[in-house]
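In this supplementary section we document a worked example of the pipeline. Step one takes a protein sequence of length 448 as its only input; no multiple sequence alignment statistics are reported here. Step two produces a three-dimensional model, which step three serialises into structure tokens for compact storage. The input and output of this example are shown verbatim.
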Amino acid sequence: MVNTLLLPELREMLAESNTAELAEFCSALNAGRTAEFMEGLEDGDLWTVLQYAEPDRRAEIFGYFDEQRQVELLQTQNPKEVAELVDKIPSDDRVDLIQELTPDRVQAILPLLPVADRRDIQRLRSYEQGTAGALMTSEVAMLSESLTVAAALGELGKQSNELETIYYLYVVDDDSLLRGIVSTRQLVSSLSHPERTLGEMMETDVVVAEVDEDQESVAEKVERFNLLAIPVVDSGRQLLGIITHDDVIDVVREELTEDVHRIAAVEPLEEDYLRIGLLTLSWKRGIWLIILFFAALLTAFALEHYHTELSAYIWLVSFIPLIISAGGNSGSQSATLVITALTSGQLEVSDWRTVIRREIVVSLVLGSFLSVIGYGVAIFLAPTPFAALVIPSTLMAVIIVGCFFGALLPLIFQQLGLDPAMMSNPFVAGIVDIMGIVIYINIARAML
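The serialised model returned by step three reads:
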């Protein structure tokens, strides 16, 4: 509502080219609020307003826009002005944005950037997507271990404008090899002893990320050790950059979104739901629907195979949906719990025996409860009380099988190095459906 009320005033300032008021607008409010007020402007007007902000402030405001809009602005606006903005954006963020631009646009912008920035961008672009190298920023506070507290503060003051964060100071030797770490808090606390060196203060047992390490593994380290940032090193322990906690949050959100998509039998989307093309969306959903369709066909073939038994005991047909849903739902529950535990680090593949034992016990409890209900219904439809026992016996069996396979299949996928979330709920349910029909008819054969 506030955004809408302010838009006419912004447009009026633009129409009058009111430099003083536009400059004040860009500097007076929190950068996030300023970006929020500007969202309703057309791209051209929005870009014009941004030019009234100081370069650093301009990049700060720009960072609050939706990523898709950021890309559209960089793709369409004046290359020289775009280059000036890109120069002020944190190195990891600008690389991500440049990756989204067309090759022609990239070639138009890169030559306008300082040589050091061009080299940094090319280096960061060379790392494979999904690794620590692609996620890191090269803007890191690197100080010599021989510096005293007083000298370190002075050096930090010189570097501060170029740094994304100064939570930690990384102590390196002349070859940029990581020697240790000193927190900013430690440095400030040591002001009473300005002659102390960083080498005397630093912690040498530093948690690091390898440059080619998977981003999900990096996120787990940051969470486990409660870090605000983690250094990225190469095989020789040369410090290349850092990954900050805000980037880790983005990774966690991305990984969780992918897992949710896969659990629902949808190929993960690379774009927002409202922006992705309809044909692409249809393909990502359709590929799994086709697989599940053929799985359902196997269920139909299984029913056809037992056509004689079902014809002889027609009352059994009424309970097929009950049997299938009980097995499929129990399997989906187990799969969801195990996948979530695996992706959050609560569970390892080596725990499989414990998982199976727990699922068998739980399935016996659930199966007993549902079997009592099932028998209470079956006794009214079955020809005899003994024949009605087919239903509770089957329910107990299919729930045990559903829980067993629902827990086991994600563990197998994890052991094979695949994403356990690929063993989605519908996929588990499809497998258990087929087994449920086979179990149902064979129990009926044995008892009737």
